[in-house]
Amino acid sequence: xxxxxxxxxxxxxxxxxxxxxxxxxxxxxxxxxxxxxxxxxxxxxxxxxxxxxxxxxxxxxxxxxxxxxxxxxxxxxxxxxxxxxxxxxxxxxxxxxxxxxxxxxxxxxxxxxxxxxxxxxxxxxxxxxxxxxxxxxxxxxxxxxxxxxxxxxxxxxxxxxxxxxxxxxxxx
Length: 172
Fold this sequence. Notes:
28% helix; alpha+beta; Alpha-D-Glucose-1,6-Bisphosphate, Chain A, domain 4; 172 residues; 8-stranded antiparallel β-sheet; 8 strands
């Protein structure tokens, strides 16, 4: 799904950061819900053709999300997100790591700190995600793993979900 919605993917190698700015055709509360509720995350948080499954989630300060991105052959790629500094519908911070199905962290893969901020943009919303890595090597590793392409494909799935949710709301 191609659109004219804002998408910026900015790499800052001096600060080991990625800044992803994405506009959505939906109100901020709905976008926030899609980022913070398991029933929505499971519908969009993986690039096509992957799906997402949650093992456990507690969206609260010091809570977590333990999930897998599942490829069409059934191979699971596990992640663990630790939430903190939550300010509802404005922002939250996380620490994000790769792990296994039991939650054991894979120390060989990069870990990151995320700041996810939600803003109004007229009738739309923007989400700005600043991802900070411990080193330039970690930043370059995730870029080489296809982070930009993965984010584009994943956020297009969120566009589709938001369209569906907006249509449901209009008919209720």
